[in-house]
Amino acid sequence: MSLCKICNNELETVISFGEMPISNRFVLDLTEDEFLYDLSLGFCPECLMVQLEECVDPAMMFNQDYAYFSSISKAMEGHFEELANEIIEFVSEKPSPFVVELGCNDGIMLKHVAARGIPHLGIEPSANVAASARENGVHVLEDFFNAKSASEIKNRYGQADVICGANVMCHIEDINSVFEGVSILLKPEGAFFFEDPYLADIIKKTSFDQIYDEHVYYFSGLAVSELAKRHELELVNMVLQEFHGGSMRYYLKKGDNNRVKKNVPFFLSQEKALNLHVSDGYIMFRERVNKICSDFRETLLKIKDDGKKIAAYGATSKSTTLLIYSKVGPDLIDYVSDTTPTKIGKYTPGTHIPVKSHGHFIRDSPPYTVLLAWNHKREIFEKEKKYREKGGKFITFFPEVIIE
Ligand code: JHZ
Ligand code: SAH
Known about the structure:
The structure is a single chain. With 404 residues, this protein is α/β, with parallel strands linked by helices. It has helices at residues 58-61, 74-91, 110-115, 127-135, 147-157, 175-185, 199-205, 221-230, 263-273, 283-305, 319-325, 358-364, 377-383, 385-389; strands at 12-21, 36-43, 50-52, 99-102, 120-123, 140-141, 160-166, 186-197, 217-218, 233-241, 247-254, 310-313, 336-337, 355-356, 368-371, 393-396, 402-403. The strands form three sheets. A seven-stranded mixed sheet has the order 6-5-4-7-8-11-10. Strands 14-13-12-15-16-17 form a six-stranded mixed sheet. Strands 1-2-3-9 form a four-stranded antiparallel sheet, with helices on one face. The mean pLDDT is 97. The chain binds ligand JHZ and S-adenosyl-L-homocysteine. Residues 68, 72-73, 167, 214, 244, 314-318, 338-340, 343, 373, 375-376, 379-380, 383 line the site of ligand JHZ.
């Protein structure tokens, strides 16, 4: 029985996927043994947080070989420039502004803040992406954010007007320490906000591929407001984001007497209508996951039986769960096309499908392509107009398997 990482209550298992490798550790040498852990999702009936039951040591995931570079997508570049503009406006009237971003990766967001000469700090433990951020003019502390590093930052630079993070808060197992760190580092009137894949979207779309080693938490407004209260913070606004298959941005302030936007009670009641506050709410999810996996595998088998080649697009970390749980490997998918230089020439974790360049995909023009990076569908369909005009078909799988 696993315990909740926030309140120590016993977790109720939502779904178990079995053994999985590290999702962003692309394999160079197929004779090497891969590290495996047991991927299971649990629900805490006490504080309502959905979370992994077993976690991987952060240093094994976030290090000098981290494979994900945020700036690989044009749409994400646009999204983070917009966020930077919001922050720049927020701090424009502040007497001594200081902006802190957790998980700044290659500087996709903070480079815009840096370009305005605004004092800032990115906290980024993965040395290779941190080096990229520095090349983009960003001031980076190569460390994991927690209560200890927050105190050190406060002693060295003072408190922050803004603490933010995108697709990072859900990655940090010791979230109590992170929230404690925010309380230490944030100015009394400061703003703390973060965005991560939204539990309600994952449940509604059955997008279970979001469940993998790096994603320790699956946030809802219900769970975030509980967590905030434990750390003398208050959830004051929630804003949906269309990225990464449906994300939510949570805005928090210090204290318990803030003006709370109507969005908060609105989303909380929607989450209750979806039964996200009771373990029974997750039973149908488990059944739908199993149906998608068998439909997905059967669709690919049928295409293969017809003698047609299948490739995939986007060597995403999330596809590790989809491919392994659906038992889809190199027997069905010939290769995965990806634009990330450090992924090309390697193999996908666990399934060992070769990762090839986008140029290879264009030359090969396979009749069928599994869109593993389904969250970037609009950008990729725009980019691959010619492929589709020539008859190439993409296969997507949430909320059901579709060939288009
Ligand atoms: P993408 C990562 O997830 C890991 P992943 C992490 N845990 C997380 O939460 C999110 O990011 C934020 C390629 N690609 O964004 C690039 C093309 O080849 O879905 C990437 O390898 N051509 C931090 O890995 C992959 O697809 C393209 O045109 O699931 C996309 O990965 C585009 C747009 C992408 O994240
Ligand atoms: N914000 C970017 C990057 C997401 S990738 C985006 O949305 O695209 C997640 C990043 O969080 C990785 O670069 C990883 O190294 C970093 N990270 C993981 N644990 C962290 C921690 N405890 N503190 C700060 N950053 C962390």
